[in-house]
Amino acid sequence: MASTGGGGGGGAAIAAAAAEELRAMANGGHHKTALITGVGRGLGRALTIEMAGRGHTVFGFSRDFYDLESVGLILCSDPDHRHVLFHLDVRDDEAVYLFAHNAIGSRHHRTIELQIID
């Protein structure tokens, strides 16, 4: 599993690491499942839309409901409806635990192959 972000390297470092991962996934032809935080705005939003457009499944978080809803409207054109977006603050440990246990562990049975923490 690849993980980007959280190291204080700024948006450019996150974008470079994510772009490298996207290239690797495109070359392998394998569709992956990604967990992306900050999907409502900026880099997280752009990466969510790009990865969904390349056929990957996105589990996304955003603290702002309206930003999350706007991304959801873009992704709803996916005929497979494979993306899962959550109104969630990743600073809330209990909410993240409940998401991991209930959404991924029980209902979707997916392995997160890529994490982009924005």
Automatic annotation (TrEMBL):
<protein>
    <submittedName>
        <fullName>Uncharacterized protein</fullName>
    </submittedName>
</protein>
<dbReference type="GO" id="GO:0016616">
    <property type="term" value="F:oxidoreductase activity, acting on the CH-OH group of donors, NAD or NADP as acceptor"/>
</dbReference>
<dbReference type="GO" id="GO:0005829">
    <property type="term" value="C:cytosol"/>
</dbReference>
<dbReference type="InterPro" id="IPR053241">
    <property type="entry name" value="NADPH_pterin_aldehyde_rdct"/>
</dbReference>
<dbReference type="InterPro" id="IPR036291">
    <property type="entry name" value="NAD(P)-bd_dom_sf"/>
</dbReference>
